[in-house]
């Protein structure tokens, strides 16, 4: 059963806990869960203040939309230094997701647009309902992505696809997003949260050091030159298998006390 998670968060965010899984919901429904400075700071606070015992997070949203992105009503004239500082505040918050304490599963529905897509891209797994749609309308607004989209999204969908999205404002459906790599699971309407929670619970049952290695090591290994990647992989593999919990799990498997991989 879920219970409220006590944190100093703005009203635009709601946090709760379901055993080893923490749940963060965007709750600014009247604004299609658009992201203002207060929400970004709250996201950073949440992911840096996870209590002991939390082993995975579900990132979801109330209402009909995941997030319509940056709240343009708050966009004010900034000089270059202020603009850099604002963008870096988003970078810090989303870095706490991608390279934080535990894996994060994002549940997407409705608008996943602009900064909302940048937020989703920081998660480790994305579950999309068929109502989800994706767009990067910054070009038509006279602005540019500032929440890490230039770094994370090309790694998911490629530079050419992202360039198309930004130059033309093209919108992609949930099915198109699944095909191009914006989501990892596609489910029917209303089934996203249940799937996301199921995946988070499965992740939470892994050995913590293995989850840490996947989160922290895999992205860096993938971006390394082959020789460096092989060396880092060997080191991470050795660290993971030397962990006492890993030894216990391996022993259980060898003694046929652990389930085998089967076709699901």
Brief descriptors of the model:
10 strands, Lyase 2-enoyl-coa Hydratase, Chain  A, domain 2, 2-enoyl-CoA Hydratase, Chain A, domain 1, 264 residues, alpha/beta
Describe the structure.
The chain is of the alpha/beta class and 264 residues long. It folds into two domains: 3-204, Alpha-Beta Complex (2-enoyl-CoA Hydratase, Chain A, domain 1), CATH 3.90.226.10; 208-254, Lyase 2-enoyl-coa Hydratase, Chain  A, domain 2 (Orthogonal Bundle), CATH 1.10.12.10. Helices cover 47% and strands 16% of the residues. The chain contains eleven helices and ten strands. The protein has helices at residues 37-48, 80-98, 115-121, 138-141, 149-157, 159-168, 174-180, 192-204, 208-222, 226-242, 244-254; strands at 3-4, 13-18, 21-26, 56-61, 104-108, 111-113, 125-129, 133-135, 172-173, 185-187. The strands form two sheets. The chain has a seven-stranded mixed sheet, sandwiched between helices. α3 (115-121) packs across α5 (149-157), α5 (149-157) packs across α6 (159-168) and α9 (208-222) packs antiparallel against α10. It starts with a strand and ends in a 10-residue tail after the last helix.
Across the major sheet, the strand order is: 1-2-3-4-5-7-10
Give a count of the beta strands, DSSP E runs of length 2 or more.
Answer: 10
Report mean pLDDT, rounded to a whole number: 92
Structural class: alpha/beta
Give the oligomer, counting copies of the same chain as homo and different chains as hetero: single chain
- Relevant CATH superfamily of the largest domain: 2-enoyl-CoA Hydratase, Chain A, domain 1
Number of domains: 2
């Amino acid at each position: 059963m879920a219970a409220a998670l006590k944190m100093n968060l703005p009203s635009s965010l709601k946090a709760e806990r379901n055993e080893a899984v923490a749940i963060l919901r965007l709750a600014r429904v009247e604004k299609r869960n658009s992201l203002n400075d207060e929400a970004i700071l709250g996201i950073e606070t949440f992911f840096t203040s996870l209590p002991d015992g939390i082993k995975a997070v579900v990132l979801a949203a109330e209402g009909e939309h995941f997030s319509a992105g940056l709240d343009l009503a708050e966009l004010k004239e900034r000089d270059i230094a202020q603009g850099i500082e604002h963008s870096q505040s988003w970078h810090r918050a989303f870095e706490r997701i991608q390279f934080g304490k535990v894996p994060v599963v994002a549940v997407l529905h409705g608008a996943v647009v602009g900064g909302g897509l940048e937020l989703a891209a920081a998660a480790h797994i994305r579950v999309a309902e068929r109502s989800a749609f994706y767009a990067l309308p910054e070009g038509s607004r006279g602005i540019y992505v500032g929440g890490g989209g230039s770094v994370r999204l090309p790694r998911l969908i490629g530079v050419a696809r992202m360039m198309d999205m930004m130059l033309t404002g093209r919108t992609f459906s949930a099915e198109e997003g699944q095909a191009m790599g914006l989501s990892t699971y596609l489910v029917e309407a209303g089934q996203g949260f249940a799937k996301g929670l199921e995946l988070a619970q499965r992740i939470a049952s892994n050995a913590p050091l293995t989850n840490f290695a996947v989160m922290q090591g895999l992205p860096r290994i993938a971006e390394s030159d082959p020789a460096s990647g092989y060396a880092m992989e060997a080191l991470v593999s050795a660290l993971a298998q030397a962990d006492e919990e890993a030894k216990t799990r391996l022993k259980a498997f060898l003694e046929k006390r652990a389930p085998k991989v089967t076709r699901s």
